[in-house]
Design the sequence.
């Protein structure tokens, strides 16, 4: 469920959360899917290197069924209900020499593009739940990922169901959502000395 924060943050951020309860009948149209990826596309990146890629896997299509086989046990009950799974990848090595790091900030840039995508999803009234629990090597093999690209996360996108609807995961969705206070990670004078206590 969404959180209440102090000071207040923008509703698109405040109302974002990771549910495990997706509507298994909801379908994402191609226009919405493109909008999400367009948001990712316009993220900043080091030297405008744009070192990201996505596999777009829609529920009901064959590539999605191939991906679902790779899910960890904990993610198998809920990920298949999402309308789409995006698999995120970043360019880790150079095209010519995969052992040569492409950009020191490639993974950072990918994360930022996914953050853009999640805000766009919130604006469209869609839920997003990112996950790492799947067989990354199997996905790389199955989808022909080149050696210099690294499979990173799955991003489940769809419509969240309400608390009374079928397929709700009450245990996960009822969990307490907590965050570290700003005093533990915002410093000015010296690392470890809180700017605000
Ligand atoms: C890189 C990454 C990996 C994650 N892996 C999983 C996962 O495998 N399964 C899962 O249910 N949630 C996964 N999550 C979701 C986190 O548990 C969730 O974002 C965190 O508990 C904070 O909750 P919130 O997103 O509702 O604020 C992952 C999130 C990220 C960013």
Sequence:
């Amino acid at each position: 469920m969404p959180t209440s924060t102090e000071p207040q943050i923008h509703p698109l951020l405040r109302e974002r959360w990771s549910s495990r309860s997706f509507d298994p009948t909801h379908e994402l149209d191609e226009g919405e899917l493109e909008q999400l990826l367009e948001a990712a596309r316009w993220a900043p990146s080091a030297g405008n290197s744009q070192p990201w890629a996505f596999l777009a896997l829609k529920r009901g299509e064959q590539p999605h069924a191939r991906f679902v086989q790779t899910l960890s046990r904990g993610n198998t009950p809920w990920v298949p209900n999402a309308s789409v799974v995006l698999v995120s990848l970043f360019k880790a090595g150079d095209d010519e020499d995969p052992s040569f790091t492409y950009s020191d900030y490639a993974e950072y840039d990918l994360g930022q593009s996914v953050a853009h995508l999640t805000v766009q999803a919130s604006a469209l009234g869609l839920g997003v739940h990112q996950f790492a629990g799947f067989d990354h090597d199997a996905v790389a093999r199955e989808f022909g990922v080149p050696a210099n690209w690294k499979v990173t996360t799955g991003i489940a996108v769809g419509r969240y169901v309400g608390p009374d609807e079928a397929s709700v995961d009450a245990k996960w969705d009822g969990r307490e959502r907590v965050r570290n206070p700003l005093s533990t990670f915002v410093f000015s004078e010296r690392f470890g000395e809180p700017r605000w206590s």
Summary: The two ends are 28 Å apart (CA to CA). Residues 106-123 form the longest helix (18 residues). Residues 18-165 form a domain with the NADH Oxidase fold (CATH 3.40.109.10). Residues 17-18, 75, 130-133, 153, 177 surround flavin mononucleotide (CB under 6 Å).
